[in-house]
Input
Amino acid sequence: MNNATRDVDTVDVVVVGAGQAGLSSAYHLARAGLGHVVLDHAPRPGGAWQYRWPSLTYGRVHGMHALPGMELTGADPLRPSSEVIGEYFASYEDRFDLRVRRPVDVSAVREGDDGRLRVETSAGVWSARALINATGTWDRPFWPRYPGQETFRGRQLHTADYPGPQEFAGARVIVVGGGTSAVQHLLEIAGVAAETTWVTRRPPVFRDGGFGEAEGRAAVALVDERVRRGLPPQSVVSVTGLPLNEAVRAGLASGVLDRRPVFDRITATGAVWEDGSRVDADVILWATGFRAAVDHLAPLHLREPGGGIRVEGTRAVRDERIHLVGYGPSASTIGANRAGGAAVREIRRLLTREPVGSPAA
Output
């Protein structure tokens, strides 16, 4: 069936996303001599980092691994991470002539003609023999739902929209979430807010001491096990615990990081707990994480009954032409680098087979 409605560009591989995972994949594709195009919806280089709040300086970044073939050196730890990493990614694209197409929105990936994939975008249609999906999670902030949430008369915002602490001056703020971002927000906001309250579904786990290679492998294995079962991935950070650094110790000592269990409902003026206690608030900040941005892959029916996409390594089990880099166990910066190379090796083996073939059963 030929469902083309306009001119179609033909390539071996389409890479969707130009963050750490996408740029790593493009680097390895270029070295392998595979024809490809990199499509990125962001207006400029930097991946999701370009959207980080100004007060998140480079020195406070929770791990940043260099891209393959080019180290990030001499960065000022006091500069905003959005600037430092944005400039680094831009230099990387220039050095390796990666020619990222942006801004381009990918709306759908469908079955095309002759065993190829049809990639529909705001800039036209591409026909590809394989696709590397490197879209990350930043575009899909997760907003949990609680009774009465729609009645709250104050401001509600997500980490994805966090502007920095200055906008919370004099406000009573409830921060919801048990991850690194929630802790960073609280430690910043507490210095200017009238009052802060930290709410989490589960008691936070703080990690005291080093986090070496063995601990890293164990954390990745836990995330990988979920993905292999077809469940939605958890972030690697979610299974490592919160690092107990000096700032966190100070927050625990001062009471800023005294955690309350999640509230029972939200009211017009704050939140109420099951025991009848209540907290008045002007702002609720949802530091509740993100979900994988993979809706454009829906026409390929890759999801399992558990809600996730089952992968082996980076390859989607339901379609060997699709590789997810930066998904699940490869979501960390070092994981994304390694996964980019692994995906390209598998794609190269796939493309040496003739014909390309249809999706795996």
Q: What stands out?
A: The mean pLDDT is 89. The first helix runs from residue 20 to 32.
